[in-house]
Amino acid sequence: MKKIAVIYWSGTGNTEMMAKAVAEGAQGDNNEVKLLSVDKASVEDVMNADGVALGCPSMGAEVLEESEMEPFVQSLEKVVTGKPLVLFGSYDWGDGEWMRDWEERMKGYGANLIAEGLIVNLEPADQNLDACKKLGARLL
């Protein structure tokens, strides 16, 4: 049994929908999956997990949400080394620069990014939610 942490920030609910699908995909055979909004998450949740999924929409000039998600991601710098990790999030405009920046940053922290960051324009459709489930299953 693996422990998987799915931690996200969502403003409109789109990234939350994605997070729920990622968590569903990570369930597998009796895995312990914690689905947490970032305000309820702790560094210990990440440290104690065998795999981690982080979700955040693109904000402003293609950056992470700055009051809760950004400080949380900063707090992971020393604890994600070698940890299997996937990233996901929704966006309204732009070309996914925030996700590329986020991937580079997590690689710089030493995380083991096991898949390309999954980005979805606005509200996820069924095929997007299927992709989220597959992303979660990669953590197994």
TrEMBL record:
Pfam families: Flavodoxin_1 (PF00258)
Residues of the Flavodoxin-like domain: 4-140
SUPFAM superfamilies: Flavoproteins
InterPro entries, alphabetized: Flav_short, Flavodoxin/NO_synth, Flavodoxin_CS, Flavoprotein-like_sf
GO molecular function, one term: oxidoreductase activity, acting on NAD(P)H
Taxonomic superkingdom: Bacteria
Signal peptide region: none
Residue ranges of the TM segments: none
Keyword terms of this UniProt record: Electron transport, Flavoprotein, FMN, Transport
Statement: the UniProt record of this protein carries the keyword Transport: yes
The keyword Glycoprotein appears for this protein: no
Names of the cofactor(s): FMN
Entries under NCBIfam families matching the protein: flav_short, PRK05568.1, PRK05569.1
PANTHER family according to UniProt: ANAEROBIC NITRIC OXIDE REDUCTASE FLAVORUBREDOXIN
Family to which this protein belongs: Belongs to the flavodoxin family.
Function: Low-potential electron donor to a number of redox enzymes.
Name under which the protein is recorded: Flavodoxin
